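User: Can you predict the 3D structure for this chain?
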Amino acid sequence: MKTTLRSYSFSIPWNLFLLTIGSILIAVSIKSVAVPHGLVTGGVSGISLLIYYFTQTLTPGLWLLILNIPIAFIGWLMISRRFLLYTAYGMLAISLFIELIPFTFPVQDNLLAAIAAGALLGAGTGTTLRSLGSSGGLDILGVILHQKFGFRIGQVSFLFNVGVFTLSFALMNTDLVLYSLILVFVSAQITDYVLSMFNQRKLVFIISNHAPTIARAIMDETHRGVTLLEGRGGYTDLPKQVVMTVVNNVQQKKLEELIFTRDPEAFVILENTFNVIGKGFSKRKIY
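Assistant: Here is the predicted structure, written as structure tokens:
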């Protein structure tokens, strides 16, 4: 069952579904919240909004599509053809939804609008990036840096936006730029949260005099693999085995009971980990 679900997550229908939902959220953020309040969303969409605000030509959706076309070729050259095709769908979907959405959110306060737009934009961006494509623009650069150097995509977006908002301060009302910075910060946080959703695990180290017994119990009762590491006490200088395993959040309490019923003196370290790739956990995503 788990293998089937992981395989389905790489299927074309599932990826198109993620890109469609993400594109709708991004389009609503831009068209229904950001534009009515004169806010800048950051990244390539932020540049398209700046051009739209100061030229009053075309529409934000068309400017976004025009700016995305040359960036898409970077994805073709540095990532993959499949990534580009999925991303092209995401780019076209966002531009189309921006053109079609007829409503605006009934939010009057600029601060609330910035938070709402940031939450929608982050949720949309994170959803598209859970697919094998993206929404285009800065996401392409984010994926490249994430693959090559392990940068978090939300961090890449936030750092890139320093340049966008330097320009915005020179051209726009200062209050609106500050509200827009809040929008981008919220968006970066939500993007990282959506990307880590359902992937976060607990990395567990167990130092005990009963390591083999605990290791066997973990394998039998939680059906998780374990690794026995050879350690040595810093104070006693005595050899000691360390059990290393990875469990999901639901299994954490059961693991604690399993450990301490066998060794009340065990020393346990639990640490959140963003993602685990391998048998029984996530499958490696290849763009």
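The CA atoms of residues 168 and 174 lie 8 Å apart. The chain has eleven helices and four strands.
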